[in-house]
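=== Structure Prediction Worksheet ===
Name of assembly: unnamed complex
Input type: mixed (protein and possibly other molecules)
Chain count: two
Listed entries:
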Amino acid sequence: MTIIKRGFAALAAGALSTALAMPAFAEPVKFDFWFGLSGDLARVVDTLCKNFNASQSDYEVVCTSQGNYDATLQNTIAAFRAGKQPAIVQVYDVGTATMMLSGAYKPADKLMEENGYKIDYADYFPGIARYYATSKGEMLSFPFNSSTALMYWNKDAFAKIGKTEAPKTWEDVGADLKAMKDAGYDCPMAINISANESWQLMEQFSALHNQPIATKNNGYDGLDARLEVNKTKFVQYVTDLKKWYDAGLIKIKSKDLGQDMVQAFASGTCQVIMTSVGDHGTVGKTQKEGMNWGVAELPVYAGTERKNSLVGGASLWVLSGKSDAEYKGAAAFLNFIHDPKTALFWSTNTGYIPVTKSGFDYMKSNGFYDKAPYKGRETAIASLTASEPTEITRGIRLGNFTQIRAEFGTQMQAIFANKVSVQEGLDTLVKNGDAILDRFQQTYPGKMLP
Amino acid sequence: MEKRVTFSRWTIGILFAVPQLLLIFTFFYWPAGQAVYWSLTLQQPWGGGNIWVGLDNFRSILSSADYWNSITASLVFAGISTGLAMFIALVLAALTDRQLTGSRFYRVVLIWPYGIAAPALALAFRFILAPEAGFLAVVNRMWPGIWDPGLDGADAMASIIAAFSWKYVGYNFIFFLAAFQAIPRSLIEAAAMDGSGVIRRFWDIQFPLITPTIFFLLVINITESFQDSFGIVDIMTSGGPANATNLMVYKIYSDGFKGLDYSGAAAQSIILMLLIIVLTIFQFRFIERRVHYR
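=== Predicted Assembly ===
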């Protein structure tokens, strides 16, 4: 027995000394990744992190959910001011301008180049890449979870009024909603008018119709951009929505009132909604038994040349002030996420779309979009790539855009509660939004957007 | 003969006070001073630098219609919810004090609401007051569209007032009940033997004797309605619809943390602080005169 024991001890000692001698066995370099997703999506991110840690032994990513996008940005700022920032952070689309002026990041393209990774930036869907790139086209952050808005329509309800296809123009939508109301549907269409719906109601609409939200090409060309949604086609759109709301064709559904619009659609209560492709999975999982539904690109007004829709979601920023070893790890992680196989994993488990052409092709060749639960999600890619992005449909690059969205919600509520007219409400939105932009510009005197 | 304990040297006294002063400085004066400094500058959120702007932040806030709307909403909220919470608690405590059937049970149960965290409470009220699926949906079934906190500002304000008052009824109840029970039984019994009824005894004996408690609760309730309303507003209305429930404390949060306008938020919190100080001075100056301390 003692001999065996001694043998084991010697073996263990030997193993230990080899481990100490060999750098390959060294502790992996740890780095932090903060993200803003929660619930189911947070579990998918955790799995993604585990897969990365299992795929190699040099680095270990520690992934921490901060609850939501707002909190992620707030906590990151607080951590950065205290010098305890994570290496990688997920920042939502509208935080891009704030990040670009922060001076707190390491450009993603430089990071990859320094660490010897070759990324083909032309492989990104242009609608996605341009949203996050500088005006010169450099990628400062990596697109991560991406989506776009789609129209979800109840095929059964449309069949009742003799339609087999989703309406393509807003004129048709108006007629179809009326027909459904006459056919006895209490809620032909559901919308919500809080700050978050600025995305599908104002931002996506403006991009599809090639209408500016702000001057200076939506802010890409300077911090002195100011809003102009009170004199574009958007005014007509809000007028129509309000008209349909007054006629009972549109109902407002929100969580505060008891049922949000995705639930209202999935339960068959409301027949049409506009929401992110990211809700495709939720609708599929929670839909009323036997309900037939589909997704389509958002409608445009008749006679409009359709442009690409905007990407929504978030990108990954690498923060400054970390060690070279951590940057090496961060680069390896970003490279891992860029891989088409990760794209397949990511899109299968969430509703998000692949961000690169190669990822999309890889998923197509795997038959992803032919299978029942995922069928229809390719519509999002079609919507995002409907045209080459124009100067206006590249995206929105406005400071403190979260506050402008909040102002959007406030004014829409005032309009729908008949407190102000459509034009008055949108004028106030522009006035208050401009004050926010003005303040942002004053905070960064003499600075330019990269 | 001098009965107080005195120190032979003043330095010893200071030394004893130092820990307390240090705590107050670190947790009150230093952050408050920092807030004053921020309110006079434009802070870059990431800490890249700041610019001295003097009173510009205050000027832009005070010239904004939204801010005045927020002050009005806060005052309405403070007035109604303090009134409601104190009145209901007073009635409940008076009844419990009369040893009615089950008063021992109420004494325990009525304290619970105060123990519930504001967000949890707000979530519960959101379900109760939801116009389509909540308990109040009945009202809408009878008169469609009459209750709509999603679009009607007055309804939304009523919702947060209901939630806040419900919580503070519990808090006020504890103090009122303690005050009632501190009144010597013999006084009330004597009055009863002289032939005065319940109401008469309440107004002539109990009420005057609990004025110090009423005054204390008034100050606390008003102060808390400016500060503790945050969680309720955040969960129930997020300041909407159309800013109808955008109370001052919530506006500070949304401008500062969501909008990353740290300087504007700092200026707003200075104004809020001043407002509360003024209100409290006012109460001590004018209402306390009617308070009879024993």
